[in-house]
Each structure stands twice: as structure tokens, then as C-alpha cells.
Design a protein that fits this description.
Elements: H1 11-28, H2 31-56, H3 62-86, H4 99-121
Helix pairs in contact: 2-3, 3-4
Length: about 120
């Protein structure tokens, strides 16, 4: 039986790749998309904090946890959809949707989502 092949990745090459990705992101991404990305990170951290709190401390009002966590997940999905629609590189995929229409859809979807979340709280 042949010994398993191991792939060694040097930390220097990994660091170089990450720095290159970050530099490309900072240089090539429009500020509109960076703002949306920052909001996506905030929503993700909010959902993680809710989940960790539920696991470590308590989930006593379980419907409150479900409402808050589903709100974070739903808002993340709506925001990711907005990001893909307003990205200039995806202009040929969303020919019928201009950025103003995409934002209006995002706002309406967010209102409907939070209406259901509020009603779920009881």
C-alpha cells in the first residue's frame, strides 16, 4: 500500500494569496458593494452571537430565538440578493432590473420579513 500523499502549504504562500485577494477587493470593488458587504458581515455576526447565546446561556423564550435568528438569516439572504443585483459585473444577468428597482425590492422584502418576524414573537 502506497503512503498517502501530503500537501504542504507554506504559510508564506497562504499569506501572499490572502493579501492579494484583499488588495484586489479593496482596489476593484465599488464603495456601494463594500457597504453592502459590511452590512452582510454585521448580519452574520449578529446571527452567530444569537446562536452562541442560545447554546451557552439559554433558549428560554425559544420563539424569540427563532424569530431573531430567522430574521438574521432572511435579512442576509435579501442583502446578498441585493448585492448580486447591483454588482456592475452582473449587469448582463439582470438586464431588466436597475439598481433602484433592486433596492425597492430589497426594502419591500425586508418590511415583509420583519412583519412576519414581529408576528412570530407573539
Amino acid at each position: 500500500m502506497a503512503p498517502p500523499k501530503t500537501h504542504q502549504v507554506s504559510s508564506q504562500s497562504t499569506t501572499t494569496v490572502i493579501q492579494g485577494l484583499w488588495k484586489t477587493y479593496v482596489d476593484d470593488t465599488p464603495s456601494k458593494l463594500k457597504t453592502i458587504d459590511a452590512f452582510l458581515v454585521f448580519i452574520m455576526l449578529s446571527g452567530i452571537m444569537q446562536f452562541v447565546y442560545c447554546v451557552i446561556v439559554t433558549n428560554f423564550p425559544f420563539n424569540a430565538f427563532l424569530a431573531g435568528f430567522s430574521s438574521a438569516v432572511g435579512q442576509f439572504v435579501l442583502t446578498a440578493s441585493l448585492r448580486s443585483q447591483v454588482n456592475p459585473l452582473n449587469k448582463d444577468l439582470f438586464k431588466a432590473v436597475n439598481p433602484q428597482r433592486a433596492f425597492a425590492d430589497f426594502a419591500l422584502g425586508s418590511i415583509v420579513l420583519h412583519f412576519f418576524v414581529y408576528n412570530f414573537l407573539g
